[in-house]
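Batch job 17 of 40 flagged for manual review because the log was empty.
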Amino acid sequence: MKTISAAVAKHMENLSTTDGVISALAIDQRGSLKKMLADAANKPADETTIVDFKKAISSELTPYASSILTDPEYGLPATKVRDKNCGLLLSYEKTGYDTTEPGRMPDLIANQSGLRIKNEGGDAIKFLVYYDPDEGQEINDKKQAFVERVGAEAKANELPLFLEVLTYDANIPDAKSEEFAKVKADKVLKTMKEFSKPEYGVTVLKVEIPFNIKFVEGFNGDNNVVYTQEEAKNLLKKQSEITDLPYIFLSAGVTSEEFIAEIKMAEAAGADFNGVLCGRATWKPAIKPFAAESEKAGRKWLATHGKENIENLNEALKGAKSWRDKLEVAE
């Protein structure tokens, strides 16, 4: 069992429900969100639009979330209008990854640091790494060292480190393809096993569901079935057994209904997951009325359908376990 300081434990309490479950809302998207807002409005999205959209999400939905994740580039105004009982995670990485060299290397925000995240009122550092466990060791060794440095910085500032890991295959360009769906589970499990090692200083893993639900029996539509529902549940159970750390699920762009179905499968499988950090599945449809009509129209969608999405997700999280079962507070 991982031991954390009393200061880190206090931040974890701020980020979770009284039951120790993390029900967090993610609005740290930057480049992709700007593009979605521009497409909806049929004109370029300026910085004011993306800031205002994040503020709308924060003020309308944080009363129903245990914490919110945003970025320090566009999201700090949103942190000022969040619910007083809502904890705060701040991203440390730039959006996307470094495209100047192979391997999807991470890149930090130049004017950000663990200390600054703490001074901005953050309860945790969130760091994203793209990872292919089967890629060359020269590339993966750099990423491992990167996470070690961020973990040491989080420890020095007595903040939890939430490590988000997104898997890919260096030889499969389309992550939504059937080809990738067949190897995704192995990638996710290997990656979780690697970053559960103590040298990384990770407090909570933010991870993918270990399959693409669009290739699971009953959810596959026109796609071929890669996994039966029973096989999918077995993967969720295996995922739970591969780490001793608290871990939470990311929504990865699926719909609210699909994400809730995945959460219910995890519960049925007996997986010891500890919550979610959910973004687009909750609020993505608000983009069109917000950008194409008005802020008022976007807020109306968030206050009704967005609220319903997050409340339905919270209901599905009754099967989640407390992070306190996996972290021990130092005396």
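Reviewer: the log was empty due to a logging misconfiguration, but the result itself is present. The two ends are 14 Å apart (CA to CA). Unflagging and moving on to job 18.
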